[in-house]
Amino acid sequence: MRTAAILPVKPFPSAKRRLAARLPDPARFALVQAMCEDVLDALAAVSGLERTVVVTANRTVALLAAERGAVVVGEPSDRPSAGTQLARDDDLDGCASAARRRPSSARRGLPACPDRPR
Predict the structure, then answer these.
(1) Which of 52-56, 59-63, 94-98 has the highest mean pLDDT?
(2) Residues 68 and 40 sit within 8 Å (Cβ to Cβ)
(3) Cα 2 from Cα 111, distance rounded (Å)
């Protein structure tokens, strides 16, 4: 069965904000980028995935994803992105919505949902 991973990534300034009091923005952004790269690399190594789809308004993430062969779904940066919204969801509704937007060639979408504070 064909499967696509769907990875929502919010803009770096919005990511890991709870660390802002202890970690300067450049270091926090570098951490978020490294985490994003790790997830993209892990998804690229999964043999059962037909493709990875990254939903983001972040240009750096789009470039990192494209370098790893992922399909990038860009979003306008002037409004909350699906990546941001999916990262805020307290349940899996947003991830299920992203799964429905998977590539038509994939029979299943596997949302790679971000960690969320509980």
Answers:
(1) 59-63
(2) yes
(3) 14
Is the pLDDT confidence value at 34 over 60? yes
Q: For the chain, what's the residue count?
A: 118
Instruction: Judge whether 84 and 116 are in contact, CB under 8 Å.
Output: no
Q: What angle do CA 37, 39, 42 make, to 5 degrees?
A: 110
Which residue, chain included where needed, has tokens 């803009």? Answer: 11
Backbone conformation region of residue 54, classed left if phi is above 0, alpha if psi is from -120 to 50, else beta: beta
**Residues sharing a CB contact under 8 Å with residue 105, sequence separation 6 or more, in sequence order:** 2, 50
Q: Which residues pair with 110 in a beta bridge?
A: 5
The structural domains of the chain, with segments of one domain joined by +, span 3-111
103 vs 19 pLDDT, higher one: 19
pTM comes to: 0.69
Measuring CA to CA, which residue among 64, 105, 111 is closest to residue 86?
111
| 111: helix, strand or coil | strand
